[in-house]
Amino acid sequence: MREEEFAAIRQYLYDETGISLSAGKRDMACSRLAKRLRHFGLNSYSAYLRKVQDGDPPTERQEFINCLTTNKTDFFREPHHFDFLRDTVIPQLRASGRKRLRLWCAASSTGEEPYTLAMTLREHCPASEGWDARILASDIDTSVLAHAERGVYDLDRAGDIPPAMLHKYFLRGTGAKAGKISARPELRELLTFRQINLIEEPWPIRAQFDVIFCRNVVIYFDRDTQHKLLTRFAAQLDPNGFLFLGHSENIHWLADTFAPLGSTVYKMRGGTDTPPPARTLPRSAARPEAAPRPARRPRLRSRGLRKTSTTSFSATSRRRAARPSSRRCSARAWPRASTTRKRASVG
Fold it and tell me: What residues are labeled active site?
C-alpha cells in the first residue's frame, strides 16, 4: 500500500465514520483490506477505494467499514461498571420510586457487553417486582452486529461469567453444537439491536436514556468529533442520567456537561445529587491525539445502506424465569435471531 493510498483510505474512513486512523495503522489497513482486493481481483488499493466510493457494488462501503473497525470485547469487561450499575444506578431509581430503566449500549460489537448488561438487569431489576427495563444495542459494523443478535458463543468465551449466571441465562449446546452456548430468551427479550453510525445525523432513535455505555470508542475520534458526539449523548440522556466510558477515556475537558464520578463513570451535570464540578483541563493538557486529524470533506451521500424504518422499542413485562434444574441444558430451545433494522423508540 503506497503512502498516498493509505492517506486516501484514512480520509475516506474519517469522512464516513469519524474514525481517525493513526499513521501507525498502515500495515493493519493493508492486511484487512487485502481480502477485499482478492475478492474483486484488483491489484491496487486505489482501485479498490474507487469501487467503494462509486458504490460498485453498493454494499462495498459497509464491507470497507467492517474491515477497518476494531471489535475487542468480553463478558463483564471492566466489571466495576456493572457493579456501579447494580450498587448505585438501580438503587437510585428505586429510591426515586421509578422502576423504568432505559439503557443504550452504543458499541455492542459481538454482543458480550449488551448480554452482560441484560444479565445485570435481570438479576437486579426483575419484572416480577414491576421493573420495566430495555436495552438498545447498536454498532456501525454489520458483521459483528449480526453475531451479537444471534447470541451464540464459544464456551471458552464465557470464562468471566459467574457459573451460576452462566447456567441461569445460557443454554449449552449438545451434539453438533457442543462447545457452544446460546443466550436464553430471558436475555434476548430485553435487547433491541440496531445499526447506528455515531456521526450520522439524526440518529434513528426516539428515546431518553437513563444510562449510555460507550466504552473504548471515543479514543478513535479526534477532539472535535468527541465533543460533537458527547454533546449529542448529553441531549439523549435523562437529566439524572449516567455515561460510562472506557478505562483509557478521559473527558474532564467537558466538565461543564458531565460530572466525573470516578472509574470513567460520568453523570449529567445539573441533575439531582450531582457532585462538585471537576477541574476543567486546558486543551494543551488533554490526551494527545494518535495522529493529526484529516481535514473533513463535505459529507458524501451514503451508499449501500437501507434507510431505517420506524418500530416500537416497547417495554417487556414478562415474569422473571425460574431457575432451571441442574440437568444439562439442551440447545433445542435456541430461538431464531431477527435481522430487522428499524428505528428504535422507547415507549
Answer: 32, 139
What does the longest C-alpha to C-alpha distance in the chain come to? Answer: 63
Confidence of residue 164 (pLDDT cuts 50, 70, 90): very high
What is the model's pLDDT at position 76?
97
What is the pTM for the complete model shown? 0.78
What burial class does residue 164 get, using C-beta atoms within 10 Å of its C-beta: 0-12 exposed, 13-18 middle, 19+ buried?
exposed
Q: Which fold has domain 3-68?
A: Chemotaxis Receptor Methyltransferase Cher; domain 1 (1.10.155)
- 254 CB-near residues (< 8 Å, 6+ apart): 227, 230
The highest-level CATH class for domain 80-293+316-333 is alpha beta
Mean residue pLDDT across the chain: 84
For the chain, domain boundaries: 3-68, 80-293+316-333
d(CA 219, CA 217): 5
Report the alpha-carbon distance of residue 30 to residue 35 in Å, rounded: 9
Residue 294's pLDDT band (cuts 50, 70, 90): low
